[in-house]
Design brief:
The protein is α+β, with helices and mostly antiparallel strands and about 675 residues long. Strands 6, 7, 8, 9 and 14 form a five-stranded mixed beta sheet that branches. Strands 16-15-25-24-23 form a five-stranded antiparallel beta sheet, with helices on both faces. Among the domains are: about 25-140, NTF2-like, domain 1 (Nuclear Transport Factor 2, Chain: A, Roll); about 340-390 and about 405-670, DD-peptidase/beta-lactamase superfamily (Beta-lactamase). The protein is about 35% helix and about 25% strand. β23 (about 605-615) and β24 form a beta hairpin.
Length: about 675
């Protein structure tokens, strides 16, 4: 009886299993589409394709091909859907089950969408019976047939140019020269000379000449030269076998004068490519490497055109799958006055230093100079390792961007100290102090620390005008003590100390009151009052700090991009108009009666303040000195110019800088 019951149970289970429905064709298609959307091509091939499909198309033609196309064509956001059948649909296993599918995707060449019918057949696989999908290459793209190839072509977008406020290009799509060798005319003994001139090696030249395509009479490219580098090109063309062809090349017409502002472009690095691969960059692209070329990369780059085509077999016309036209990069206009900047750069005569100029009424940045500098055109043509090492090892550090840094401002800060005291009501410009001797200290609690001044011959009483003319450190130290640390510190913060200079597109080091933003002692308070101690100031910020003397108390947010709104208030109510006029009068006296006589021009009335910041290590008796002059036209102040030159101790002090600044004012007045 037990055996009979057991046998009956087994037969019942088998019977019931046979009666259970296999997945419907819709359920199978839903699973297939789910794997398709996730890119599970191996799973689709193994378990969902009909036997005939798998016989016709090997797995690598199905799975590996679609995976590679996804990478090469930048396929993203793949979305496959199907049209659901009616609820009362009956499926006949003897007949194909048909559905309509929709495919959408994003590619490097733009969106692709298509609708297609799809069929499922009921087949028996070993011990399994189920529905399977018929497939051919048209499910990749509708016009793709066996034997066809898919190609992607690229149309390069033009990089946007950078122009100054008048539209003069400072970074443009110009021309240069491709230098090549015609092998049959080459004097082999001159290869080392060619290599040295092109910044390459004889071995690299041989590699180019030994390429498979080279023939004796063909032009073989071996290097480039900038259009401006006429001397080098002439030397090259004197060598037998050398020829040159004009090619498109990025150009920097102002060379060194604007180098640290514009920066330059160069080949994309592997690290950059990995980081930016989702933005469509390729290993052959050029990318901004320094300066505005780098900081404005997204605006300048543009978007290359892309075209995906099906190359048909048997010579038939190709079919376009998707196409995106190139979009050229944006032309970016700056507030910079390129000619004014060049004059300022040239006036500095290659001395290490920096300069900045702003329009006091708008905050527009007219010049940002770092001296000396490199020529960005050298980087475009291809710089040798030897030449780069020369720049790196140059004691004047031409690769170092000085306008992005901050330095002790010395006495150039004194007008700001005066403004804070006047605003606080602790400094009376007309009240004189009696100051005797070359050094001074408040009392014995200062120990060995004393404040020194350069001109002990200054006649008493010392009021604000005389303190400015003679740049009297003792006067300003006493005024700072009268204000107190809290008032002075708060006043400096009101002038923007401790804040990032709000200049869009550039990264500038903030000015600091001290390393920790506080003043810890009376001695430090005294030092800070005349721009020493731990105080550091960015050159653009320093120029901007003189704006309130010309605007009656307002300091504008500096702007560099011409399309930015100008005249934006950064700080206000720093002085009232009458107080600003008082400081203006003293700054004119500095040039007329003081120690900036190189700026005392007969035909151009200049006002300003000199400054000398001593950089002395502990134990040194004599350190280096950086010289400053912050100036403007006293009657027509269309710009403020702040200039700093390093190591002026042997060049006549800060008057040396005043003379350089005077050249800029003379140029501007004569335009």
């Amino acid at each position: 009886m037990k055996k009979i019951l057991f046998g009956t149970s087994v037969l019942l289970i088998v019977f019931l299993a046979g009666c259970m429905d296999k997945p419907s064709p819709e359920e199978r298609l839903a699973e297939y589409v789910s794997h398709w959307n996730k890119g599970d091509y191996a799973e689709m091939y193994e378990n969902y394709l009909t036997a005939k499909t798998k016989e016709t198309f090997p797995e690598d033609e199905f799975a590996a091909r679609q995976e590679k196309l996804g990478e090469d064509l930048g396929i993203d956001n793949l979305e496959v859907t199907y049209e659901k059948p009616g609820e009362d649909t009956k499926w006949d296993r003897e007949q194909p089950a048909e559905f309509n599918i929709s495919v959408k995707m994003e590619t490097l060449a733009g969106p692709v969408e298509f609708d297609k019918p799809v069929r499922l057949l009921y087949e028996e696989r070993e011990k399994e019976k189920n529905w399977f999908v018929e497939w051919d290459p048209s499910y990749i793209f509708p016009d793709l047939e066996p034997g066809d190839e898919i190609g992607i072509s690229r149309t390069e977008a033009k990089r946007g140019e950078i122009v100054d406020r008048t539209g003069i290009p400072i970074a443009k799509n110009g021309t240069g020269y491709q230098v090549g060798i015609v092998p049959e005319k080459l004097d082999e003994s001159r290869k080392p000379d060619i290599a040295e001139l092109l910044g390459t090696t004889p071995e690299a030249i041989d590699t180019s000449l030994n390429a498979a395509w080279v023939k004796p009479d063909l032009f073989v490219p071996v290097g480039k030269t900038a259009k401006s580098d006429t001397g080098r090109l002439e030397q090259l063309l004197e060598i037998p076998g050398i020829a040159a062809r004009e090619i498109g090349m990025r150009e920097y017409p102002y060379g060194t004068a604007l180098a640290h502002l514009t920066g330059y472009i160069g080949p994309i690095s592997s690290e950059q490519l990995e980081k930016l691969k989702d933005k469509g960059y390729s290993e052959t692209d050029q990318i901004g490497r320094r300066g505005l070329e780098s900081l404005l990369e997204d605006r300048l780059r543009g978007q290359d055109g892309m075209k995906i085509t099906i190359k048909k077999a048997e010579g038939r016309d190709p079919v376009t799958v998707a196409e995106r036209a190139p979009e050229d990069g944006e032309t970016v206009k700056l507030t910079i006055d390129a000619e004014l900047q060049k004059v300022a750069y040239d006036a500095m005569k290659g001395e290490p230093g920096t300069a900045a100029s702003v329009d006091p009424e708008t905050g527009e940045v007219l010049a940002l100079v770092s001296s000396p500098a490199y020529d960005p055109n050298e980087f475009i043509a291809g710089m040798s390792g030897t030449r780069y090492r020369e720049l790196e090892e140059d004691e004047k550090t031409p690769l170092f961007n000085r306008f992005a840094q901050s330095y002790a401002p010395g006495s150039a800060l004194k007008p700001v100290t005066a403004a804070i005291g006047i605003k606080a009501g602790t400094l009376d410009p007309a009240a004189g102090l009696t100051i005797k001797g070359k050094t001074w200290q408040k009392d014995a609690s200062w120990g060995s620390y004393r404040v020194s001044r350069v001109h002990p011959e200054a006649p008493n009483p010392i009021d604000l005008k005389r303190a400015m003319v003679y740049s009297d450190n003792i006067y300003f130290a006493q005024q700072a003590l009268a204000m107190g640390r809290d008032t002075f510190t708060e006043g400096l913060k009101q002038f923007g100390f401790g804040e990032t200079v709000p200049l869009e597109a550039m990264e500038l080091k903030a000015s600091q009151i001290s390393n920790d933003g506080t003043i810890g002692s009376e001695g430090q308070l005294a030092d800070t009052s005349f721009g020493q101690g731990q105080m550091l100031t960015n050159i653009l910020h320093l120029a901007t700090m003189y704006e309130p003397f010309l605007t009656g108390g307002t300091m504008h947010k500096p702007t560099l991009l011409f399309d930015e709104e100008d005249g934006q208030v950064w700080k206000e109510d720093l002085l009232d108009p009458a107080q600003a006029e008082t400081i203006r009068a003293t700054l004119r006296s500095v040039v007329l009666d003081g120690y900036a006589q190189s700026a005392n021009l007969a035909d151009v009335p200049i006002a300003g303040k000199t400054g000398t910041a001593e950089l002395k290590a502990a134990g040194e008796k004599q350190g280096k000195e950086n010289g400053y002059f912050v100036s403007y036209h006293a009657e027509n102040p269309s710009f403020i110019l702040a200039m700093m030159v390093e190591s002026i101790e042997d060049n006549g002090g800060s008057d040396y800088v005043a003379g350089m600044s005077a050249e800029v004012h003379r140029y501007a007045a004569g335009r």
